[in-house]
Please model this.
Amino acid sequence: QVQLVESGGGSVQPGGSLRLSCAASGGTFSSLAMGWFRQAPGKEREFAAAINWNGANTYYADSVKGRFTISKDNTKNTVTLQMDSLGPEDTAVYYCAADYWVTAQTMRALTEYKYWGQGTQVTVSS
Model:
C-alpha cells in the first residue's frame, strides 16, 4: 500500500509562486507514475500535471503549461510541483496521486490512479 502526504499549500498573491511536495511511503516509489490533480470549489477534480516512473516524461494540462513544473526524486521518494505565475484560477485543493500501471495515454485520467493523498489547499488572492 502506498501512502501519499502533500505539503506546501498556502495563500499567495496573483503572480506569486508556490512549491508543493508529495512524500510517498510504502510500495516501490521508483516504479510509480505520479500525478497532481486539483479541485476548485464547485468543480470536478481535474488533471494538472504528471510524470512517469523515471522522471523522463512529463505531462501538463494546457491551463498550467509553461507555469507549472513537475519533478520526481526517486532517492527521496518525493514528487514536487513548482507553480509560478499563479492566478486566482489556480485556487483549488491540490491532490497528489500515484499508480504503477498508468501509461502515457492515460496519464491525465484521474480514474487511472489508485493511490491518493489528502490534498493541500492553494489560494491565490489579492
User: Anything to note?
Assistant: The chain has a mean pLDDT of 97. The two ends are 40 Å apart (CA to CA). The longest strand covers residues 18-25.
